[in-house]
From TrEMBL:
<protein>
    <recommendedName>
        <fullName>P-type Cu(+) transporter</fullName>
    </recommendedName>
</protein>
<comment type="similarity">
    <text>Belongs to the cation transport ATPase (P-type) (TC 3.A.3) family. Type IB subfamily.</text>
</comment>
């Protein structure tokens, strides 16, 4: 395109909340044959809400209050969307302003976190005293209707105690929160009834994470992240325009498939359980098929893939790292702007021919 065409194209884009960083992405965009969407925060709104709390052990071993206080205290150190959902829910349910003590915190992208936690007794006790849990549901004063499942699993002959939870010195917990692989990496077996409980949520497009305390698989939390209202229309239109639309996520395969189905992406086009470090590799492999590939994403974990793609498109509300790595930024966070960017590219370049 001529400098004038580029100026007009980027100018029209900017007026419409589509930031195009120069002539190259404007020209390349029209050659894109394959469009890869990240899931969390891109196809979904990225602000998941808690839906389910499951305790796998007897109430006497770990109460709901204690379980939530520990999970909240641990996740307060993470910036993952799942962590946001958990900490928000725990704060509201336990009616607390601050969490317990947490140290030795390590988060491994794509898997989960591990840390030590103490000082949760008073948080849990206040909650239990209020007895806000009734009939398996959080009482109506709780903001969201979260199902609380306290039925210990059949397989789990509950151990007599959680090491560290005895009276005496203040209890300290070794906490693991994450997916199945995270548990297995720490030699914690995930039995089939637990796997099934996770699958039940995942088939609904939710994400379930497991929690182990002092080496004992104690419970599960599930969160639901809603698909953006325009996602389905955007995907459909892009497909009608002849683009191959794919989904790329670090999340579990079942969850990814459910979300893909919701927006109209076929199962064959789903790349799930891809570690943040591998997202760019997937783009590279697609490019080997000699097609121009665009990636739409929002997270830190998307930025290498955004940089690798022929055109990286960042959601404006996304992380700074993603916005920097991308060549096009959608300020309005509207997925239909991907189509607008495509049309803008096609028209701008055609006009100067
Ligand atoms: P996404 O592509 O959806 O952003 P990630 O690669 O960030 O996924 O994470 C993949 C999976 O790792 C999550 O679905 C979750 O099971 C687990 N995980 C990551 N961080 C956390 C956390 N802070 N707490 C619990 N689980 C986590
Ligand atoms: Mg994301």
């Amino acid at each position: 395109a001529t400098p004038t065409a580029v100026m007009v194209g980027t100018g029209v884009g900017a007026l419409n909340g589509i930031l195009i960083k120069g002539g190259e992405p404007l020209e390349t965009m029209r050659k894109i044959k394959c469009l890869v969407f990240d899931k969390t925060g891109t196809l979904t709104n990225g602000r998941p809400e808690m839906t389910t709390v499951c305790l796998f052990v007897e109430q006497s071993l770990c109460s709901i209050g204690r379980f939530l206080a520990i999970a909240g205290t641990a996740e307060a150190n993470s910036e993952h969307p799942i962590a946001m959902a958990i900490t928000k829910f725990v704060k509201e349910t336990l009616q607390i302003a601050a969490f317990g003590k947490c140290w030795n915190f390590v988060a491994t992208p794509g898997y989960g976190l591990r840390c030590k936690v103490s000082g949760v007794e008073s948080l849990a006790d206040a909650y239990e005293a209020r007895d806000r849990v009734s009939n398996g549901m959080v009482s109506p004063s709780s903001p969201s209707k979260v199902v609380i499942d306290r039925e210990p699993l059949s397989r789990s002959v509950s151990p007599v105690s959680l090491p560290g939870s005895q009276s005496g010195s203040p209890p300290t917990y070794d906490v693991l929160i994450g997916n199945r692989d995270w548990m297995r990496q720490h030699n914690i077996d995930v039995p089939i009834d637990v796997d099934q409980k996770m699958l039940d949520q995942e088939k609904k497009g939710q994400t379930a994470v497991l929690i182990a305390l002092n080496g004992i698989l104690t419970g599960m939390l599930a969160v639901s992240d809603l698909v953006k209202p325009e996602a389905r229309l955007a995907v459909h239109t892009l497909q009608r325009m002849g683009l191959d639309v794919l989904l790329l996520t670090g999340d579990n395969r079942q969850t990814a498939k459910a979300i893909a189905q919701e927006v109209g992406i076929s199962n064959k086009k789903v790349y799930a359980e891809v570690l943040p470090s591998q997202k760019a590799d997937v783009i590279r492999r697609l490019q080997k098929k000699t097609i121009k590939v665009a990636m739409v994403g929002d997270g830190i974990n998307d930025s290498p893939a955004l940089a690798q793609a022929d055109v990286g498109i960042a959601i404006g509300s996304g992380t700074d790292v993603a916005v920097e790595a991308a060549q096009i930024v959608l300020i309005r966070n509207d997925l239909l702007d991907v189509i607008a960017a495509l049309l803008l590219s096609r028209m701008t370049v055609r006009r100067i021919r």
